[in-house]
């Protein structure tokens, strides 16, 4: 595997780290592997309510149908060390981004972005499917798949 980018690792973040960010992690890892991009990807949440829990079964079920692995994923909260340890931190929505900006040391603030915006997507936020009904998890997967492909292409160009 080769590394084309100065970005060596990415942290993807949502609120509880059980739906959107594990899905972002699984899809982004798969897209990076497909393109032989050697990059580490992890996920975390802005809250610790689900600390240690596996991803939401509905996220896993939707993702596995499309061939994504959620193996060895467990919810964790973003730590102060994450701001220095990761080259890029991509948030699911504006509230998560705002929450991280509030606690991020100023020297690392340039690492914080919205996941979809960084991908150049028209829609800025990945909606939270946790309390929703129906195809919310499928929609989230569609958005994340498209954005992940764009993010990997962007990294390969840099």
TrEMBL record:
Lineage of the species this protein comes from: Bacteria, Pseudomonadati, Pseudomonadota, Gammaproteobacteria, Alteromonadales
Single GO MF descriptor: protein tyrosine phosphatase activity
The protein's Enzyme Commission number: 3.1.3.48
InterPro entries recorded: LMW_PTPase, Ptyr_pPase, Ptyr_pPase_sf, Tyr_phospatase_low_mol_wt
Tagged with keyword Hydrolase: yes
Family as reported in the entry's similarity comment: Belongs to the low molecular weight phosphotyrosine protein phosphatase family.
CDD domains: LMWPTP
PANTHER family in UniProt: LOW MOLECULAR WEIGHT PHOSPHOTYROSINE PROTEIN PHOSPHATASE, LOW MOLECULAR WEIGHT PROTEIN TYROSINE PHOSPHATASE
Active-site annotation: 14 (nucleophile), 20, 128 (proton donor)
Database matches in Pfam families: LMWPc (PF01451)
Protein name: protein-tyrosine-phosphatase
Keyword Cell membrane tagged: no
Residue ranges of every copy of the Phosphotyrosine protein phosphatase I domain listed in the record: 8-154
UniProt KW keywords: Hydrolase, Protein phosphatase
């Amino acid at each position: 595997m080769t590394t084309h980018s100065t970005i060596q690792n990415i942290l993807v973040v949502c609120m509880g780290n059980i739906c959107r960010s594990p899905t972002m992690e699984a899809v982004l890892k798969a897209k990076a592997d497909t393109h032989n991009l050697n990059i580490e990807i992890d996920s975390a949440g802005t809250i610790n309510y689900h600390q240690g829990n596996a991803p939401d079964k509905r996220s896993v079920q939707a993702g596995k149908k499309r061939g994504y692995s959620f193996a060895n994923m467990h919810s964790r909260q973003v730590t102060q060390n994450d701001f220095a340890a990761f080259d890029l931190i991509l948030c699911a929505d504006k509230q998560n981004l705002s929450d991280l900006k509030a606690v991020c040391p100023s020297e690392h603030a340039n690492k914080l972005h919205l996941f979809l915006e960084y991908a150049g997507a028209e829609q800025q936020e990945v909606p939270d499917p946790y309390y929703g009904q129906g195809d919310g998890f499928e929609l989230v997967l569609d958005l994340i798949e498209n954005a992940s492909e764009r993010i990997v292409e962007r990294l390969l160009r840099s």
